[in-house]
Amino acid sequence: MPKIFVPTIMRKHTENKATVEVPGTTVSEVFDNLLDSYPLVRDLLRRKEGGLLPHINVFVNGDDIRALDGEKTGLTDRDEVHVVPAMAGG
Prior knowledge:
The protein has helices at 8-11, 27-37, 42-45, and strands spanning 3-5, 19-21, 56-60, 63-64, 80-85. The protein is an alpha+beta fold.
């Protein structure tokens, strides 16, 4: 199963797990399955109408999904998905 690396801010909603393995063949499917298991992550990851929040960056094996197929990016069992919230401030 693909492994999701959970950012610190979301870990309180994933039983303090830094990584979780979730079934799925696309980024979208993996996130849907993540939210089935950990529904409180939804508000930190997705818009109410669907899609990722604009300040959430997602990388598959180090590649930004925006340069790939977005949430339709295909995944295999050995892929690593990193969720990285953008930082604000100056």
